[in-house]
Amino acid sequence: MAIDPKPLVGDPGFDLLAALHNRWDDVIATGDVPRAVRRWFDLMTEILGLDRRRATVWTLARILQKALWEAENGASWSTEFDAAIAEAIAAPPGA
Q1: Number of structural domains found in the chain
Q2: CB atoms closer than 10 angstroms to residue 62
Q3: Which run of H or of E encompasses 39?
């Protein structure tokens, strides 16, 4: 049984943001959020065989999309973990 299935066809890097959200408590528990985000993101891209740069662009685009949806609905973008994810994955590797 599936809950809220949303079948999609497209670039596999499109929905890595959801996977990062699902592990947010684990990321926080490490005490080093940027490092943990980069590690988890790099692990996902490696296992899935994705180009890291392309996956980064897709993830940043999804964060922007969420912010715009919230703005359209009168909400302010206050998701601190999206900002932390954006900063961590946009940083040059090894930063």
Answers
A1: 1
A2: 20
A3: helix 33-48
